[in-house]
């Protein structure tokens, strides 16, 4: 069942003549609905407060517990999701120009090379409502218009996070202001309208819905941007009175944790903590209108008899922390709260009421959508399809890549009302390995500070195993230094990977395929090989992706090692 460009052409021709459409030619090409919330955490348990998402998605689909965004901030994460490329290959690394935002997306040529355009080329009708990218605003929305849509109705800056005075822009129309109306309710009506339109068109469709909830509220007060707690619909204002941010091991701890700027934060006083709990409740309240919208979508999909033939995907651009490691509400770091994000998929042949620990990331989403629709994968995808059937998931459990590469450039800022400092030098590369024996997070900051956490025994990332040189510790039976050598080499190979080298990371180190995972790489016969590798080392901190700042790169003359397969024969 392939929707090739030829099929697409036929579909268009048949569509115009009002005949059987593509559906007559291809029995049942599936549809996709993708819901992408803004800043929704996994680790602060927000999904526990969304009973309708649970009912329609978690109970009837597969929950990917180890799904990650690779760059924990809106625009880079969204561009990665819609291009299938890591941020170091899109060079969209920030929310605003010069390093990110909609103008940079256009300048990098992605307006003709991203998911909506590709899906249209494959014969799909493509609909979108909600936030697309940051810095897509009431002034630049038409220069150029985002490409690839049958109908779009975008939320525009600077009103994207103004919950009671949003601005939407439909097709070629002028932006329209919705003063006094609750943004997610406006969005829900638009989403339902687009679904009706998609059904009327009798073509297979892709519908993307991107609410701004539960992002912080932002008002532009004569030029200065003020962050505040998100705003709920009035009907949800009194819910969850007793709920607080989960008091996990890293919540406002007595001792400082992390490295770099995080390490220097002071413990929050009770006024600050109380307000952060309020901020948390406002997020949960704001998510209620999203939960209701999901319910509304499912009842419409059901009444249109589309549920059997539609994949529904639910995720968020990046995660969120509140008080963890003493940080003010925000994202942008490599901590688990920021990078672990929801992913739930429901649809034909998707395992129901299933949770998997397979490691997946936003880099995989475009490839996943291609695969679900039987479109041939692009060679330049940095990610690979996420398996959805029970059988495919079980097969992948032994074969699939067990890590994600995390990267960030620039600064981190709090989004609450306290401590509004912008923390510079928040530039780093990380690697999150999830395997039974080695469940780790490794990060190297642009200041060359190193962090390594044992995520099984220290899920809150409170004890950096490298703090005292790591000499005292062993990790799954190996001295830490040896584990770090492997992680260094893997990170070196991943930080500038492209396409296949991202998809098959160990192959760039071991071209003969003898090493498939960290455990394989730990074999003693590779000790010399890993010891000899040049390490990841930053030359300086920069706010964007400037290769000169990032030290040796895999493949340049400083890093030429690859296991020849000859020096360390199997019998050693
Ligand atoms: C989902 O599975 C769990 C056990 O894994 C079971 O207790 C629960 O009833 C199931 N829920 C549904 C809706 O099938
Ligand atoms: C709402 O936004 C519009 C612009 O879209 C602006 O003209 C109007 O003054 C705003 N209303 C309020 C109450 O801020
Ligand atoms: C905020 O408002 C000022 C005018 O009051 C405007 O010049 C500026 O562009 C706005 N900022 C943003 C980010 O929209
Ligand atoms: C609590 O901390 C906040 C943020 O640092 C500060 O603004 C406030 O004055 C402090 N309040 C008290 C009572 O110390
Ligand atoms: C940022 O890192 C550079 C080194 O690249 C250092 O010189 C500078 O002091 C750091 N700035 C801050 C604000 O930490
Ligand atoms: C990324 O974009 C920035 C800003 O335009 C530019 O300075 C930098 O050279 C680009 N990096 C790469 C690797 O192309």
Automatic annotation (TrEMBL):
<feature type="signal peptide">
    <location>
        <begin position="1"/>
        <end position="24"/>
    </location>
</feature>
<feature type="modified residue" description="3-oxoalanine (Cys)">
    <location>
        <position position="74"/>
    </location>
</feature>
<dbReference type="GO" id="GO:0018958">
    <property type="term" value="P:phenol-containing compound metabolic process"/>
</dbReference>
<protein>
    <recommendedName>
        <fullName>Arylsulfatase</fullName>
        <ecNumber>3.1.6.1</ecNumber>
    </recommendedName>
</protein>
<keyword id="KW-0732">Signal</keyword>
<dbReference type="GO" id="GO:0008449">
    <property type="term" value="F:N-acetylglucosamine-6-sulfatase activity"/>
</dbReference>
<dbReference type="Pfam" id="PF00884">
    <property type="entry name" value="Sulfatase"/>
</dbReference>
<dbReference type="GO" id="GO:0005539">
    <property type="term" value="F:glycosaminoglycan binding"/>
</dbReference>
<dbReference type="InterPro" id="IPR000917">
    <property type="entry name" value="Sulfatase_N"/>
</dbReference>
<keyword id="KW-0378">Hydrolase</keyword>
<dbReference type="InterPro" id="IPR017850">
    <property type="entry name" value="Alkaline_phosphatase_core_sf"/>
</dbReference>
<keyword id="KW-0325">Glycoprotein</keyword>
<dbReference type="InterPro" id="IPR012083">
    <property type="entry name" value="Arylsulfatase"/>
</dbReference>
<comment type="similarity">
    <text>Belongs to the sulfatase family.</text>
</comment>
<feature type="domain" description="Sulfatase N-terminal">
    <location>
        <begin position="30"/>
        <end position="375"/>
    </location>
</feature>
<dbReference type="GO" id="GO:0004065">
    <property type="term" value="F:arylsulfatase activity"/>
</dbReference>
<dbReference type="InterPro" id="IPR024607">
    <property type="entry name" value="Sulfatase_CS"/>
</dbReference>
């Amino acid at each position: 069942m392939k929707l090739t460009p030829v099929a697409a052409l036929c579909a268009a021709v048949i569509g115009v003549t009002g005949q059987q459409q593509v559906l007559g030619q291809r029995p049942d090409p599936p549809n996709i609905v993708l819901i992408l919330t803004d800043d929704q955490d996994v680790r602060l348990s927000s999904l526990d407060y969304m009973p309708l998402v649970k009912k329609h998605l978690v109970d009837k689909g597969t929950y990917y517990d180890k799904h990650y965004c690779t760059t924990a901030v809106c625009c880079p994460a969204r561009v990665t999701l819609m291009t299938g490329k890591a941020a170091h290959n899109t060079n969209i690394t920030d929310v605003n120009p010069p390093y990110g935002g909609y103008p940079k997306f256009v300048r990098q040529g992605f307006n003709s090379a991203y998911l909506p355009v590709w899906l249209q080329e494959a014969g799909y009708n493509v609909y979108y409502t909600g936030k697309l990218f940051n810095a897509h605003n009431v002034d630049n929305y038409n220069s150029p218009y985002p490409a690839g849509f049958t109908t779009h109705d975008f939320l525009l800056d600077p009103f994207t996070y103004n919950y009671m005075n949003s601005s939407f822009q439909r097709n070629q129309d002028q932006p329209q202001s919705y003063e006094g109306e609750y943004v997610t309710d406006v969005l829900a009506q638009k989403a339902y309208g687009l679904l009706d339109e998609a059904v009327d068109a009798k073509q297979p469709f892709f519908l993307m819905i991107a609410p701004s909830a539960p992002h912080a509220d932002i008002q532009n007060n004569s030029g200065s941007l003020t962050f505040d707690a998100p705003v709920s619909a009035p009907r949800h204002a009194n819910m969850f009175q007793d709920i607080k941010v989960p008091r996990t091991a890293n919540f406002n701890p007595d001792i400082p944790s992390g490295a770099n700027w995080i390490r220097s934060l002071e413990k929050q006083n009770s006024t600050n903590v109380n307000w952060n709990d309020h901020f948390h409740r406002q997020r949960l309240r704001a998510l209620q209108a999203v939960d209701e919208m999901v319910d509304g979508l499912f009842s419409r999909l059901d009444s249109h008899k589309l549920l059997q033939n539609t994949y529904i995907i639910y995720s968020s651009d990046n995660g969120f922390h509140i008080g963890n490691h003493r940080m003010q509400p925000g994202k942008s770091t490599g901590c688990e709260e920021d990078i672990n994000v929801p992913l739930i998929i429901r649809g034909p042949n998707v395992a129901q009421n299933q949770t998997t620990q397979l490691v997946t990331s936003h880099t995989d989403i475009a490839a996943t959508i291609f695969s679900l629709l039987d479109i041939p994968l692009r060679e330049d995808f940095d990610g690979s399809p996420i398996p959805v059937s029970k059988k495919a998931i079980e097969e992948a459990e032994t074969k699939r890549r067990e890590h994600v590469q995390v990267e960030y450039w620039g600064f981190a800022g709090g989004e609450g009302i306290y401590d509004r400092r912008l923390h510079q030098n928040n530039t780093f590369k990380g690697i999150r390995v999830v395997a039974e024996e080695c469940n780790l997070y490794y990060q190297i900051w642009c200041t060359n500070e190193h962090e390594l956490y044992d995520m099984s025994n220290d899920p809150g990332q409170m004890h950096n195993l490298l703090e005292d040189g790591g000499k005292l510790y062993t990790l799954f039976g190996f001295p830490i230094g040896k584990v770090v050598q492997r992680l260094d080499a893997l990170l070196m190979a991943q930080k500038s990977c492209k396409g296949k080298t991202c998809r098959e990371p160990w192959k760039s180190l071991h071209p003969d395929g003898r090493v498939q995972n960290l455990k394989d790489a730990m074999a003693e016969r590779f000790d010399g090989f890993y010891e000899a590798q040049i390490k990841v080392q930053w030359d300086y901190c920069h706010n964007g992706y400037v290769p000169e700042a990032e030290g040796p790169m895999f493949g340049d003359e400083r890093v030429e090692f690859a296991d020849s397969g000859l020096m360390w024969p199997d019998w050693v």
